[in-house]
Write a structure and sequence with these properties.
Chain B: GO terms for molecular function: ATP binding; glutaminyl-tRNA synthase (glutamine-hydrolyzing) activity; transferase activity. Chain B: This is Glutamyl-tRNA(Gln) amidotransferase subunit A. Chain B: Heterotrimer of A, B and C subunits. The structure holds two protein chains of two kinds. By secondary structure, chain A is mainly alpha-helical. Chain A has a domain of about 50 residues: Histone, subunit A, CATH 1.10.20.60. Chain A is about 35% helix and about 5% strand. Chain A has a two-stranded antiparallel ribbon with strand order 1-2. Chain A is flat, with a radius of gyration of 23 Å. In chain B, about 40% of the residues lie in helices and about 15% in strands. In chain B, strands 1-3-2-4-6-5-10-11-9-7-8 form an eleven-stranded mixed β-sheet, sandwiched between helices. Classes of the chains: A mainly alpha, B alpha/beta. At the A-B interface, helix 1 and helix 2 of A face helix 10, helix 11, helix 12, helix 13 and helix 14 of B.
């Protein structure tokens, strides 16, 4: 049984904000199916009582006092932006036209 | 004058310290070498000749003024193009960052600058460090200096090839699933993945945050240790950086170079010592194990039964983290923006930008990661993979109660021909079969050349407990003293 269908790949691409082409959908569906079937082996050994490890270093929240420190200038921060206006990032419009 | 490009970093540093050569002359010699061979090797995406010469002259001036400088002052270094460098183009091998000049340096770059290392430029890589062959770079592949029809490994193929082509004596890589060690193995160079958290990730363009580890690439073990010592150490800007002293890796390498391993217990990973590797790789590996025995090491077989699940677990965890990390490439604050004609809304512009900016392997992994993290599949995939990570860590802990280090071949096969695995992604993933367990566990690993198979280099991997990077350097240097370094054919 296929683990992942062409339609599912299209759905996942939409969720991932990837406008994949028809050819890519055909290619990825086959490849992802092979990959997912291979990686599904992780389920073979895992018992309920095994705790998950997300990270090899124990993580704690790192907090610091809220004091001003030197940081990027607005010019530096905007230097790599695709578009800027009045010292701010200019983004494409957020709202769709009403249907 | 000696051809300085053929010297090790240690030798170059000595030449500069003695005044026989200036840092400027050394930098120029390497820039000349790059100009002579890199059109065939394509190790570099960007050569910063002007920046290198400015940095080299600064070292010469500091030395002339009597300032005490670090052991690598004036030595050139190449930096994988996924590490941010202030004002110097940084692309991560992707079209989505073409032309981007970061406004800041990564911590490891700051440290190299402070130590007087001279950055020659940025090296090629698989896009966002996703790949095992450097064929997934958006700017074309790098070619293995041993055989220009073959891959130089990945994702840090550019850094490794720069060393093997004598374009740089040192390079920096990042290792998420083997991307320093695997290119080291197939180019006959040394590549070390430090303990996770031992080197700062601040300023690395994130791929898989719980695994990414920057580290040194060199032509000798001592050179790698010297660069390791510059890169490593706690960084308060990285919450995963470990606030503990760095072990004396340089001392350990020098101790190992004496060729005495008396009292060292070496564990052969039973599951990785034979099956799955090419016969020539296995033969070279076994000869190296014999060489270690002759140096006084006690070699025992150790079982790590869950290592066989490391590859599947990795290919769920890494894509999951990548799908999250790469969400920042949305065409808003930096990089590419496609389709912003005033008629399209943000979401559509974002999708078109990411479609145009990302290559096939990145898209595959983003989709796999989105799938593995999605409701209904999380427990079956990502959750299970995290549990496998626990089992692998337990395997390592149990093994290191019996032995000081674990060893295996670095890769199952020697450098394969370009294009031979790109149509079958899972076959490509097998290149990292032996390197991935250490990333999931977080411990250090190093690849050191141990011989040839079919005329191509074979790598020997040494894995050590977390924060015991010194142990692997000792064994690696001892092996190097026994089998020697490899010299690639002339380009």
């Amino acid at each position: 049984m296929a683990a992942i269908s062409r339609e599912e790949v299209a759905h996942l691409a939409r969720l991932s904000r990837l406008a994949v082409t028809e050819q890519e959908l055909d290619l990825f569906a086959g490849q992802l199916d092979v990959i997912l079937q291979a990686v599904a082996r992780v389920g073979e050994v895992v018992a309920e009582d095994i705790p998950p490890t997300s990270h090899s270093v124990p993580l704690t929240n790192v907090l610091r006092d809220d004091v001003e420190v030197p940081c990027l200038t607005p010019e530096d921060a905007l230097a790599g932006a695709p578009d800027a206006e009045d010292g701010r990032f200019r983004v494409p419009r957020i709202l769709e036209e009403e249907a | 004058m000696t051809d300085v490009t053929r010297l090790t970093a240690t030798q170059v540093a000595a030449l500069i310290a003695s005044g026989e050569a200036s840092a400027t002359e050394v930098a120029q010699a390497h820039l000349d070498r790059i100009a002579a061979v890199d059109d065939r090797v394509h190790a570099f995406l960007h050569v910063d000749a002007e920046g290198a010469l400015v940095a080299a002259r600064a070292v010469d001036q500091r030395r002339a003024s009597g300032e005490a400088l670090g052991p690598l002052a004036g030595v050139p270094v190449a930096v994988k193009d996924i590490v941010t460098t202030r004002g110097v183009p940084t692309t991560a091998g992707s079209k989505i960052l073409e032309g981007w000049r970061p406004p800041y340096d990564a911590t490891i770059v700051e440290r190299m600058r402070a130590a007087g290392l001279v950055m020659l430029g940025k090296t090629n890589l698989d896009e966002f460090a996703m790949g095992s062959s450097t064929e997934y770079s958006a700017y074309g592949p790098t070619y293995n200096p041993w055989d220009l029809t073959r891959i130089p490994g990945g994702s840090g193929g550019g850094s490794a090839a720069a060393l093997a082509a004598y374009e740089a004596p040192l390079a920096v890589g990042t290792d998420t699933g083997g991307s320093i060690r695997q290119p080291g193995a197939v180019t006959g160079t040394v590549g070390a993945k430090p303990t996770y958290g031992g080197t700062s990730r601040y300023g690395l363009i994130a791929f898989s945050s719980s695994l990414d580890t920057p580290g040194p690439c060199a032509r000798t073990v001592e050179d790698a240790a010297l660069l390791h010592a510059v890169l490593a150490g706690h960084d308060p800007r990285d919450s995963t950086s470990i606030p503990q002293p760095v072990p004396d890796v340089v001392g350990a390498a020098r101790q190992g170079a004496t060729g005495d391993l008396t009292g060292v217990r070496i564990g052969l990973v039973r599951e990785f010592s034979g099956e799955g590797a090419e016969p020539g790789v296995t033969a070279a590996f076994r000869d190296a194990v014999d060489a270690l025995t002759k140096l006084g090491a006690e070699v025992v077989e150790v079982s790590c039964p869950h290592f066989q699940y490391a590859l599947p677990a990795y290919y769920l965890i890494a894509p999951s983290e990548c799908s999250s990390n790469l969400a920042r490439f949305d065409g808003v604050r930096y990089g590419l923006r496609v389709g912003d004609d005033g008629a399209k809304a943000l979401e559509e512009v974002m999708s078109l930008t990411r479609e145009a900016g990302f290559g096939p392997e990145v898209k595959r992994r983003i989709i796999i990661g989105t799938y593995a993290l999605s409701s209904g599949y999380y427990d079956a995939y990502y959750g299970q993979a995290q549990k496998v990570r626990t089992l692998i860590t337990r395997d390592f802990t149990a093994a290191f109660e019996q032995v000081d280090v674990l060893v295996s071949p670095t890769t199952p096969f020697v450098a394969f021909p370009l294009g031979s695995r790109t149509s079958d992604p899972y076959q490509m993933y097998l290149a990292d079969l032996f390197t991935i367990p250490t990333n999931l566990y977080g411990g250090p690993g190093i690849s050191v050349p141990c011989g040839l198979s079919e005329g191509l280099p074979v790598g020997f991997q040494i894995m050590a407990p977390t924060l015991r990077d010194d142990r692997m350097y000792r064994v690696a240097a001892a092996l190097e003293s026994a089998v020697g370094t490899l010299t690639p054919p002339a380009l």
